[in-house]
């Protein structure tokens, strides 16, 4: 165990005696400092929460940090079978293929043609278009179907549970269960944007998918928040493949094939080799949102800390003010201590010990209040703010609070300490 | 026998005024272990300044100060503090007890001064011994506000004695006390000479001064020795 020197122990004993004898003054110092330290703790915790919120939204789109993402382009009919057969049944990789799906009455145009958000935030989608291998063009008027009760969604077929890479937040119902036998009626999980559409429009449940052998009857089992504004539905690929041949799982109009993998999996090498054999060059990258956002996060922290620093400065001024007044009152005590052999350095140490102890006590109090505040926030707002769910007090904020308390103690006690050390002993002789 | 204190030609000039004023003018003095001496003189004659120089609160402008044969006239503050702790005890007219501390804690103040460290048990034993020596061990847990002037001064004496000093400097220790209590305090002070501690008492009270072994008169910074008649 670390043992303090005699001088440090003397400073501590006398400092504690001083604090106990001037409880009201200590309390006054603590009040002004409390706000400063609390500001540092709250700002630091706030920055951590904001960082978490920022990253949490990015994780929905990009995936968790460390996830290897392979984007695959091309319209080769062999692409779908190659990807799905390589990845199917593996726990270290999930393939996602996107395609157009219209859910509603047959023979009508969807209310949100092009799969645009139903709140109209993407503006007018323009005239109906058709695309094939030769390109896209406006649909002739004769071929344009009347608008009816149908909603267009992006349908994402999954080979496995993607949530270990993209932590979609459950909203209601349940997520796709990949451990059961594939159902003949595809089970769909909607995202929030799609769920809004189906709440607004009570459409008959028939699903049209480009290239499918027949229209299907979908079975909605849940809603998740995937952070996407575009209406989207998630389906098990093996359930969809009852209706859509493997060669048609890749939408030629909007190729959207992505494989999410755990770092180091052999799938990356094998699949890349297979794709290159088809003349497709996959784009592989590793998600590192934290690093990508580092600059933005650092700036955010800096701004927050500058604000906290200002508030802390007020706390330091408070402790300095009370410290100077206290030294002024204790001139005789310090002169007497010098007379009985106390060195100047110890006198300065006594004052610093008092302000440091005050700073640490204040920091402990501010951290305690912050922890309780955080618990209350999570309890009260955790339901509406998903990133708050399960959030614990960021202890780096606690460390920042202790450091702030110590810095305030040193800064606020420095000038009074110098003054105390300079009090002439003759003060007691002339008194 | 080597003198415990040997002052030779000590001069102290008060500067910072239009005309510098000589407070001590070539003071020479020898003090031996176990001696008791009184310094008397009018207000402003330089008694307290002499005590400040003797107690290492202040440095002389000229002259030599030997302590047990070692020249300490120009001692740096750090070493002066160490010597004050190890060799000197001080008693002042106003007792200077810290009102938020008990009698025992006030006495312990001289032990918790950064000059060496005593474990709590030893510290407590030394404090109780010092309080016992001045006859107020039973008041150890009392705060100054609950003690009489005489008792407070005896706590101050215990604080001066707790480090077993070789020289006890007392600056008008009975000035704030009635005659009877003052006599008791002088008794307590004088008792230390029996164990070889030198006592230097600054006082206005001729009766108390007459009880010391030597009587010195300070007038306009000049020290002269008088015969003790009693």
Automatic annotation (TrEMBL), chain A:
Classification via InterPro entries: ABC3_permease_C (IPR003838), Macrolide_Exporter_MacB (IPR050250)
Main localization of the protein described in the UniProt heading: membrane
GO CC aspect terms: plasma membrane
Protein name: Putative ABC transport system permease protein
Membrane topology value: Multi-pass membrane protein
Transmembrane segments: 298-324, 345-378, 398-421
Keyword annotations of the record: Cell membrane, Membrane, Transmembrane, Transmembrane helix
Keyword Membrane in record: yes
Domain (ABC3 transporter permease C-terminal): residue spans on this chain: 306-424
Keyword field contains Membrane: yes
Family: Belongs to the ABC-4 integral membrane protein family.
Gene Ontology molecular functions: transmembrane transporter activity
Species per Swiss-Prot/TrEMBL record: Actinoplanes xinjiangensis
Subcellular location: Cell membrane
UniProtKB/TrEMBL annotation, chain B:
Keyword Repressor: no
Listed Pfam families: ABC_tran (PF00005)
One Gene Ontology molecular-function label: ATP binding
GO cellular component terms, A-Z: membrane protein complex; plasma membrane
Record's protein name: Putative ABC transport system ATP-binding protein
Occurrences of domain ABC transporter (ranges): 5-230
Lyase in keyword set: no
Keywords assigned by UniProt, alphabetized: ATP-binding, Nucleotide-binding, Transport
SUPFAM superfamilies to which the protein is assigned, alphabetical: P-loop containing nucleoside triphosphate hydrolases (SSF52540)
